[in-house]
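To whoever picks this up:

The parser on our side crashed when reading a file containing two proteins. I've narrowed it down to the boundary between the first structure block and the second sequence. Both blocks are reproduced below exactly, byte for byte. First block:
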Amino acid sequence: AQILSHKAMERENAYMGHNLGQHCFYPLCEGDWAFYSLRDINNRSYATLQVRTSGNVVTHCTGYRGQTIPAEYMNMIKDFTTRMQMTFKLRGAVTADQQDFPSQDPH
């Protein structure tokens, strides 16, 4: 699910125990960033992605409380990012194994 409002971002941060997007949510409204909450069939978040809209590049991918994303969800993340034609340039406290992602940006 794409996170489209400040309230939705607050919900994601509270549920996931992180603060992703708190400092760049308003630029998101201007189109610089997109945030996605990847959820299971029960609508529970299991990963949050921060995407720079210019270039469609994932810069953060984090699990609950910054922990490693469970392996059973990695294929879903790969499918989603492939379908959305996203590439990866992960930085900061990356919690998922970068080698598990399909299309790394080498820069």
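<<boundary where parser fails>>
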Amino acid sequence: NTRKYAVEMYRNCGDIDYVCRKYHILGLHYGDGIKHHKIQPRTPQHNGKVERSHRKDQERFYYKRIFVSFEDFKEKLRHWTREYNNFPMKPLNWKSPNEKYLQFIGM
């Protein structure tokens, strides 16, 4: 295991297929001793940060662009992700998400 942090719990609405795909993306295996906490769907008090993130994605990315193909969508998403992850944000003490991540893992 090369991760510098431990994943203790993963929360979502309980869609086990989604959980397994997300674990795979994160390089984890379902049942690695990581607790899976099911939350009630459509409850902002449980997943407000995620809901806000989805809303911001809608406002800043999806509503402002027209995609002529799936390849076009993927290229625009790649560009948007790079831009977003390198933009300083007040909640992160004016660090970008990439800077904050590197600080978190000690680099």
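After patching the parser it read the second block fine. The first strand starts at residue 9 and ends at 12. The radius of gyration is 16 Å.
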